[in-house]
């Protein structure tokens, strides 16, 4: 069976930089930081007191039914909003003629943490009878996918992924596979996260995974820089519409890029730490290259996982060298997390969106806050200023807790 070609026809995003894809992209290319002090709760007791918070988001702009909207968690609001944006951008109409051939693949890394906190406080305070009847709805991870299907009428293949920091990338990869093998003609693929909660911050503090650099906030996330000390938690979401090529062409869709390859594997090593020689991520990148039928030398840009943690940035650098050899020195490698922080489960999806736009506009976004070179991180990280350069093939990496890895390769569509 010949695999069907899969293309990207719609984009949606909500980030700490802006509401919307183009607004977020312009800010990213300008090297603007979306990181600031935590405002959603009192963070004074924590070592990390900065975040990439989404500002001025109004869920009523995307979910008109006020009663239904009030019952849903912020992470679901983000998921729906991004899906709506992507559908509008693609001009894909879902109706009785195609509803069984349009699916949803939506992911989240931790889901409705704030809902857990609220319900738990009520129970401990002797007010269990005040727990919302929609508590179980919100804390069920697949509810973002379910609500998107309900509101759009997409009745086809339906999946939820919950794979830590690799969720978004693997959501795009799974959506691609479903279309390649004929189970759907189009998929709304997305991921969202809203991890702004005291419990989440307490856990990350205890783990030692987040930055303690709180002043100035915009300098806190510094991937590959010698002074990095941990990632900055952030929230938001992203979505893409992926379609079978002929389906997209028949309806005259605008095609942003083609999904050329996908790799997924596990380190099978540690629950949080990466393999320091980069062997697991390297295998994942090789799987994506094999799937794309490409040689390493064909890749021109890598949108790195680039978390700004000491261990992960070194491991990813070593993985890139293992896969690309001497070509690694010619690659542009940058981290969007330097500006938007770590959107956890949504990180891979927004980075795929930005990779698509890198191909479209021939602009490579920078890694900001790169000030002190690290001898262990010695590639071209596009420091501090965006770079104009044609990019025909881009790779986007995600490596998550539990040792799960995801890698997608996107390329310029050429008919």
CATH architecture of the largest domain: 3-Layer(aba) Sandwich
- Cα radius of gyration in angstroms: 20 Å
Q: Enumerate the spans where pLDDT stays under 50 for 5 or more consecutive residues.
A: none
Q: Helix-strand pattern, N to C?
A: EHEEHHEHHHEHEHEHEHEHEHHEEEE
Strands in their spatial order, largest beta sheet = 5-4-6-7-1-8-14-13-9-10
CATH topology descriptor of the largest domain: Peroxisomal Thiolase, Chain A, domain 1
Relative strand content:
15-25%
Helices and strands: which structural class? alpha/beta
CATH hierarchy, class of the largest domain: Alpha Beta
Q: pLDDT average, as an integer? A: 96
Instruction: Based on Cα principal axes, name the global outline.
Output: globular
Protein described:
By secondary structure, the protein is an alpha/beta fold. It folds into two domains: 6-250, 3-Layer(aba) Sandwich (Peroxisomal Thiolase, Chain A, domain 1); 262-411, Peroxisomal Thiolase, Chain A, domain 1 (3-Layer(aba) Sandwich), CATH 3.40.47. Helix content is 33%, strand content 18%. It contains 13 helices and 14 strands. It has helices at 21-29, 66-70, 74-90, 113-124, 135-139, 143-152, 167-180, 198-207, 245-250, 279-292, 310-324, 337-340, 347-361, and strands spanning 6-14, 36-37, 50-51, 102-107, 158-161, 186-193, 236-244, 257-266, 301-303, 332-334, 363-364, 387-388, 393-400, 404-411. The protein has a ten-stranded mixed β-sheet with strand order 5-4-6-7-1-8-14-13-9-10, sandwiched between helices. A two-stranded antiparallel ribbon has the order 2-3. A hairpin with a 3-residue loop joins strand 13 (393-400) and strand 14 (404-411). Helix 3 crosses helix 6, helix 7 (167-180) crosses helix 13 and helix 10 (279-292) packs across helix 11. It is globular and about 65 Å long. The model has no long low-confidence stretch (mean pLDDT 96).
């Amino acid at each position: 069976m010949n695999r069907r070609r899969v293309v990207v026809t719609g984009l949606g995003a909500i980030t700490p930089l802006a509401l919307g894809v183009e607004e977020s992209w312009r800010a990213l290319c300008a090297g603007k930081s979306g990181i600031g002090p935590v405002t959603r709760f009192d963070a004074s007791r924590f070592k990390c007191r900065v975040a990439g918070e989404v500002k001025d988001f109004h869920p009523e702009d995307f979910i008109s039914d006020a009663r239904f909207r009030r019952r849903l968690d912020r992470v679901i609001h983000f998921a729906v909003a991004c899906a709506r944006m992507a559908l509008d951008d693609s001009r894909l109409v879902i109706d009785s003629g195609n509803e069984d051939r349009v699916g949803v693949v939506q992911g989240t890394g931790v889901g409705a943490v704030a809902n857990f906190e609220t319900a738990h406080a009520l129970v401990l305070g002797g007010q269990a009878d005040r727990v919302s009847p929609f508590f179980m709805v919100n804390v069920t991870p697949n509810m973002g996918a379910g609500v998107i299907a309900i509101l759009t009428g997409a009745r086809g293949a339906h999946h939820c992924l919950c794979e830590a920091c690799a969720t978004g990338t693997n959501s795009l990869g799974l959506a691609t596979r479903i279309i390649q093998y004929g189970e759907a003609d189009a998929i709304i693929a997305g991921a969202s996260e809203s991890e702004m909660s005291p419990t989440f911050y307490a856990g990350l503090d205890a783990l030692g995974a987040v930055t303690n650099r709180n002043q100035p906030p915009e300098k806190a996330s510094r991937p590959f820089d010698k002074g990095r000390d941990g990632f900055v938690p952030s929230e938001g979401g992203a979505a893409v519409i992926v379609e079978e090529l002929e389906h997209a062409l028949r309806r005259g869709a605008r095609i942003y890029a083609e999904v050329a390859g996908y790799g997924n594997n596990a380190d099978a090593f540690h629950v949080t730490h990466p393999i320091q020689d980069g062997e697991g991520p390297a295998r994942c990148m090789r799987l994506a290259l094999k799937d794309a039928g490409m040689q390493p030398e064909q890749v021109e840009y890598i949108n790195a996982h680039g978390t700004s943690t000491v261990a992960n940035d070194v491991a990813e650098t070593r993985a890139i060298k293992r896969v690309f050899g001497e070509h690694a020195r010619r690659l542009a490698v940058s981290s969007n997390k330097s500006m938007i922080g770590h959107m956890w489960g949504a990180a891979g999806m927004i980075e795929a969106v930005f990779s698509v736009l890198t191909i479209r506009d021939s602009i490579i976004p920078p890694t900001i806050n790169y000030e002190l070179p690290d001898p262990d991180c010695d590639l071209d990280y596009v420091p501090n200023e965006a770079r104009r350069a044609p990019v025909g093939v881009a790779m986007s990496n995600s490596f998550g807790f539990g040792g799960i890895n995801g890698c997608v390769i996107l390329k310029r569509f050429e008919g």
